[in-house]
Design brief:
- The chain is an alpha+beta fold and 105 residues long.
- The chain has one domain (2-104).
- It has helices spanning 47-56, 58-61, 63-76, 81-91, 94-104, and strands spanning 2-4, 20-22, 32-37, 40-45.
- The strands form 2 sheets. A two-stranded parallel ribbon has the order 1-2. The protein has a two-stranded antiparallel sheet with strand order 3-4.
- A hairpin with a 2-residue loop joins strand 3 (32-37) and strand 4.
- The longest helix has 14 residues, at 63-76.
- The chain starts with a strand and ends with a helix.
- The model has no long low-confidence stretch (mean pLDDT 91).
Length: 105
């Protein structure tokens, strides 16, 4: 779960969660969709943005998981490549992702 840098960490017993912090305002707007779950508005990132976030936090998620998610997304939705590149550039993950996108595309 991503939180603003100065936001207090919520005390959640279940399910176990990992929190990451961000100072970028666009990290909370770019590629975020609002869904209704059990009557509550829940903000969830779209699949392309989620893949970029995996690369941004590859130390926590592991590079193997990032690459598998990217491979699967490109296999099923080749047209999502421009969206992934756009998110990566705006969120500062482009330098990390560029070699992998070139190799897989």
């Amino acid at each position: 779960m991503q939180l603003p840098a100065n936001y207090p960490t919520p005390q959640v017993g279940h399910p176990p969660l990992r929190f990451v912090r961000s100072r970028r305002a666009e990290a909370f707007k770019l590629g975020v969709e609002t869904h209704r779950i059990a009557g509550h508005a829940v903000r969830i990132t779209d699949p392309d943005r989620t893949i970029v976030d995996c690369f941004r936090h590859r130390g926590t998620v592991t590079l193997e998981v990032c690459l598998e998610a990217l491979r699967e997304r490109l296999r099923n939705r080749r047209q999502s490549l421009p969206a992934i590149e756009n998110y990566a550039r705006k969120l500062g993950a482009w330098r990390v992702m560029k070699p992998y996108l070139e190799a897989l595309a």
